[in-house]
Design goal:
The structure is a homodimer. Chain A is α/β, with parallel strands linked by helices. A seven-stranded parallel beta sheet of chain A has the order 10-9-11-8-7-12-13. In chain A, strands 5-4-3-6 form a four-stranded parallel beta sheet, sandwiched between helices. The first copy, chain A, has a three-stranded antiparallel beta sheet with strand order 1-2-16, with no helix packed on it. In chain A, strand 14 and strand 15 form a beta hairpin. In chain A, helix 2 packs antiparallel against helix 5 and helix 2 crosses helix 7. The radius of gyration of chain A is 24 Å and the shape is globular. Strand 13 of chain A pairs parallel with strand 16 of chain B, so a sheet runs across the interface.
Chain lengths: 413, 413
């Protein structure tokens, strides 16, 4: 099937989903979840084929782990789909209505986006997660996963499609692009008229490729060069806890801290405890000259280190003369994801919140909280780092748009 | 100055504007408005130069009229700027705050987009309108008008920039791209890292060029292939009034109707009165075979006529067998702008509102109301026909985004 044909099927499905209603959508989600579990053997066999190829190609153990499915993981994926069914339906809500002086009543109604394209990398669980979120928000989806997971994705998509067909949902509801070539991905990025929004999920390379090539509207996600700024007046223990949590609780994720800015007059106790904690947690420090003088195990930072998302036990560290130097540094080097100040000073806290330009700006809490579940959205399809449409964790509401509903009785202008 | 340098200046200005506050922004808007009036001579002289060139190049009278400024028109433009000052400031509003179980307080705060690029065509008033809307919403703007209006635009931009400088606003607040070459426009469409959102205002050619070339996020505006569907049960007089108003009150605008769909069993009185009204108003009908049989002055419609935004005293007309045929036709041929049903049938009205996929869906009112002023927004920067971020008339709120403000007391994950 060509991408255009898939696009046409998706548009048809989107029309169906638009008015399918919450009960039917939830039934479909439960059917999908049950099918994933009852046909786990098929999916596991396909996954084994992916794993075999990946091992042959010398995939790293951590990547292999991400690619691997087990019965338990499939049950967890199915539970995730059921959890999406339990979330409130975002579609159909009236976001406000006014009566104009001429008697027209103008309402703003939340409606689905239509057809959502998602391009992602090696994790097969994304296939079910995204399908569930799109279905619950009445969007058809066209999924294009990485070639490393193609057998697993194909098996999961097939299982879900059959379950959807059995409950009367159209074939275009959830579709997988089976051709994982770069050309097909580029074609998908230019499928204007069929794809309403394209969401890339993956590393900086994928995001950049989509931004450069896409002609359909895109929501950029995920790259996080997140900073913690430790102010002069602060609780040293709290500051160390937050930095260590943000850096080391899960270094490979986008809301992990990558850079630490310290006021030159921050408490001596903070400098000492922070140093000890980094050594203990085996975090490699790339420091500015002041830090390298203070902590002789630190490696001198290059300019590029301050723009690097290490995604590892490494952190760039720099002292600043005042809060504005910290804010300017963050606005220049950050990726608009999550930024934090640790301070006891009211004015500085508010100033930081006002002036830092990012999706999530924190006072005295770890950047690791930038996450759909932690924000109370129940689930997320990604974390937007652009300003248009959605910013920060994107839940079901971010997969919707609105239309104006205007009721008149013959008004002309 | 290069576009990159303009981008840097705009980013600096955006940081200033972010915290400038309503009073200072309003002062700046009044200063801009006053300067436009007191220095009208300079602007009028520049406009005369544009007009002279345009006449030489054989510009049509209607286009010349759009290009022409007079003292009265400059006063009206200045009044428009003052009206923007009087609108509520959208920036800084808290859109909700929750307390999470771990004690984190997560608020959603409305903030400016940052730097807005606008590419537009021959109307010089756009220069002041857009500058005012961007400033009020705390956004810096980079404007690129058409070459036909370059002298007028340059004069207006210069007058506004000087007024802004006098009240202490940075030079990057309002900037005009003086090079009107296509290459520079393309470069502007790819100014990632400097332009947060690009809004093209103009004809279908401009919009398509931006969609194809831009790598910065874009809000598509303006193309409107708007339909009126006249249902079987309807008030014939109301239907004729709405069609005539939507088609002829201002045929050159995007919310004008371009296509009429009629239920085959619509009242005979409607068919007769509609025909008479079209003849009276000199509207050329491009009809389907049924219509051409009924109205022998009608010209047979080609398939392309149903996808054409005539922007003139022309309309495509087609009979349909039922409401779903009308809805399918609209969803296939519409541009997602404004669509209307004229009906007295409750179920059909709601069905049309539910199923038509467009920014504004009307029952029993003219599509001409899709407009920022008519919607009560006070002003508009354009009418979005895409689904991401903004849909329909875009006022000040649509020129903002939000950020999450998270207040903790040491939370880690």
């Amino acid at each position: 099937m060509t991408l255009i044909e898939m696009g046409q099927r998706a548009k048809e499905a989107a029309r169906f989903l638009n008015t399918a209603g919450t009960f039917r959508k939830n039934d479909a989600l439960f059917a999908m979840a049950d099918a994933l579990v009852t046909r786990a053997d098929l999916i596991l066999a396909a996954n084994e084929a992916d794993i075999a190829v990946a091992r042959e190609n010398g995939m790293s153990e951590s990547m292999l782990d991400r690619l691997t499915l087990t019965s338990e993981r499939i049950c967890a994926i199915a539970d995730g789909v059921r959890a999406v069914a339990a979330l409130p339906d975002p579609v159909g809500e009236t976001l406000g209505e006014v009566r104009r002086p001429n008697g027209l009543r103008i309402a703003k109604r939340r409606v689905p986006l239509g057809v959502i394209g998602v391009i992602y990398e090696a994790r097969p669980n994304v296939t079910a997660d995204v399908a569930a979120l799109c279905l619950k928000s009445s969007n058809a989806c066209i999924l294009r996963g990485g070639k490393e997971a193609i057998s697993s994705n194909r098996a999961m998509a097939q299982v879900m499609a059959q379950a959807l067909e059995e409950v009367g949902f159209p074939a275009g509801t959830v579709q997988l692009v089976e051709d994982t070539s770069r050309e097909t991905a580029t074609e998908m990025m230019r499928l204007n008229g069929y794809i309403d929004v394209l969401i890339p999920r993956g590393g900086a390379g994928l995001i950049q490729s989509v931004v450069q090539n896409a002609t359909v509207p895109v929501i950029e996600t995920g790259t996080g060069n997140c900073h913690i700024y430790v102010d002069a007046e602060c609780d040293p223990d709290m500051a160390v806890d937050i930095v260590i949590n943000a850096k080391t609780s899960r270094p490979s994720v986008c809301n992990a801290a990558e850079s630490l800015l310290i006021h030159k007059n921050a408490p001596v106790a903070f400098y000492e405890k922070m140093r000890t904690a980094f050594i203990q947690k085996k975090v490699e420090v790339r420091g500015c000259p002041v830090i390298c003088d203070l902590w002789n195990e630190a490696i001198p930072a290059t300019e590029a280190d301050f723009d690097t998302e290490f995604l590892d036990y490494m952190i760039s560290v720099k002292t600043v003369n005042n809060i504005d130097e910290a804010i300017d540094h963050i606005n220049a080097h950050g990726t608009g994801h999550s930024e934090c100040i640790v301070t006891e000073n009211y004015t500085n806290a508010e100033h930081f919140l006002d002036c830092v330009d990012a999706a999530a700006v924190y006072v005295n809490a770890s950047t690791r909280f930038t996450d759909g579940n932690e924000f109370g959205f129940g689930a997320e399809i990604g974390i937007s780092t652009q300003k248009m449409h959605a910013r920060g964790p994107m839940g079901l509401q971010e997969l919707t748009t609105f239309k104006y509903i205007i009721r008149g009785n013959g008004q002309v202008r």
